[in-house]
Write a structure and sequence with these properties.
The structure holds 2 protein chains of 2 kinds. Chain A is of the alpha/beta class. Chain A is built from 7 helices and 6 strands, in the order H-H-E-E-H-E-H-H-H-E-E-E-H. In chain B, strands 5-2-6-7-8 form a 5-stranded mixed beta sheet. In chain B, strands 1-4-3 form a 3-stranded mixed beta sheet, covered by helices on one side. The chains are: A alpha/beta, B alpha/beta. At the A-B interface, helix 6 of A face helix 6 of B.
Chain lengths: 238, 225
């Protein structure tokens, strides 16, 4: 009899997510944590010159810096910022990063990419490169440099599996910190017109009651949206 | 319950379906163990853009030896000493050079042999690339969040009559960030493609600046003083 009772109680634990039996606490706890798992984003802009763009025939390209030994700016983040800039009000035509790198090969590879605006002069002195840039209608080159780092990881989650089913129990938390800087170069004047930096951080939580419930702080996504929208305003000169 | 029966040795009480399942699991385990013992083969694949440079007015014969065409690198497992990964990069090396060289030189002719090349009189120079060293950095070994590839090449350029023009070393480096749920194959492939692009970039932009080649190009009136 004792064994039977024990088995029944186990069955109840494994069917916690049936609509009728789902405890209120399972809703309340994630909801409270969701409120806590928010992101703080700080954006700084430094303008050196006025900017404008004619959206009819002028474009920009957003490129990730990949010269650093310890990290490289993720292509997915560059693509995310490009998406934000090319959508919505005052959208700007953005040339796809990989398409640009292939078309301009070998001038924008990690080893050969211009590191300072002075190098643009050398690049533009080569007819083949200048003509190709002109074909794209590039007005501004935006260099993105940065990384998202994870820190302050704590807690533990243990999962078990047996003949009758399985489940997890525990709690994990960590902090993500995104630091990115965009430097904007004006191609015609071969000068830097300004920079925008973003610093976003947020705490994520992973409570596990039978199944893990990830409450992820969208740190990189917020950094991307913040930086993209600011960049769009900056280049439009608004 | 079935597990308890197995542990306590009451095998005879296991129903037929249980026996079949046990056999299936055993076979699966053997397959997994056998797979774990053999080295994984990674074939580097990629396409490369043609470099955007002005062609040199030269007809160059290129010779790829067997070692270059079938280049393969074996990464050893540090713990067991067994082969862990076999990285075949020959096909993509060939793809790269066959894309890069026609963009750098007016005409490129692939030679079957250096001993009795056909039509050598029309050729200004013979180019022979070779891979001297190939190194791989895997995140599981380096504890870095990147896959890395480093390649050392030896390049030789000679005149059609065999006279020496230049012999120089080039290195290529590529890294690719480790991503969640990314396979080792994909990580190594991405890093190798970056390394091959790196080689093409430095070869294309640096070829004329190699002192011996620069001197030879001037002697041929291809470059101005």
């Amino acid at each position: 009899m004792g064994k039977t009772i024990s088995r029944d109680s186990k069955m109840k634990q494994l069917t916690l997510f049936n609509p009728g039996t789902f405890p209120v606490t399972a809703f309340v706890l994630p909801f409270l944590l969701f409120l806590c798992s928010c992101t703080t984003t700080e954006i700084d802009e430094f303008r050196q010159s006025s900017t404008s763009i004619n959206n009819a025939d002028e474009t920009i390209v957003i490129l990730g810096r990949r010269q650093n030994n310890n990290y490289e700016t993720e292509q997915s983040f560059v693509g995310c910022v490009a998406d934000v800039v090319s959508r919505g009000d005052n959208s700007i035509t953005v040339v796809d990063e990989q398409e640009f790198l292939d078309a301009m090969f070998p001038f924008f590879e990690p080893r050969t990419a211009p590191m300072r605006t002075g190098h643009l002069e050398q690049l533009m002195s080569m007819d083949v490169a200048a003509e190709r840039l002109d074909e794209f209608g590039i007005e501004y080159i935006v260099w993105l440099d940065g990384i998202t780092e994870r820190s302050e990881q704590s807690g533990s989650i243990s999962c078990t599996i047996g003949p009758g089913g399985g489940g997890c129990f525990g709690f994990g938390t960590w902090q993500d910190d995104s630091n990115f800087e965009a430097e904007i170069w004006h191609l015609d004047s071969q000068s830097s017109v300004g920079s925008i930096s973003t610093d976003a951080n947020g705490q994520s939580y992973m409570p596990a009651v039978v199944i893990p419930i990830p409450l992820i702080a969208r740190v990189e996504a917020n950094a991307c949206n913040g930086l993209g929208n600011q960049l769009k305003q900056f280049i439009n000169g608004t | 319950m079935k597990m308890i029966q197995l542990i306590t040795g009451k095998v005879s009480q296991i129903p037929k379906v249980g026996k079949l399942t046990a056999i299936k699991y055993s076979l699966a385990s053997i397959i997994v163990l056998l797979t774990a013992c053999s080295a994984a083969t990674i074939n580097i694949e990629g396409t490369f853009p043609a470099p955007l440079v002005q062609k040199l007015p030269l007809t160059v014969g290129v010779y790829y030896d067997e070692a270059f065409i079938n280049h393969s690198f074996i990464e050893i497992n540090d713990n067991t000493g067994d082969d862990q990964y076999i990285i075949n990069s020959g096909a993509s090396q060939l793809e790269l050079f066959n894309t890069m060289l026609p963009a750098v030189f007016e005409q490129v002719v692939q030679l079957d042999s250096l001993e009795s090349p056909s039509g050598m009189s029309d050729i200004d120079a013979v180019f022979v690339p070779a891979i001297e060293e190939f190194q791989v950095g895997l995140p599981q070994k380096t504890r870095l969040n990147v896959y890395e590839i480093w390649v050392k090449y030896n390049m030789r350029l000679a005149q059609s009559n065999g006279d020496y023009i230049a012999d120089w070393v080039m290195t290529a480096y590529g890294k690719s960030p480790e991503e969640t749920f990314q396979s080792v194959d994909a990580g190594v492939n991405d890093a190798a493609n970056v390394a091959l692009r790196d080689l093409a970039a430095s070869f294309t932009l640096g070829f004329s600046n190699i002192p011996e080649i620069n001197e030879w190009l001037r002697s041929q009136n291809i470059m101005q003083e």
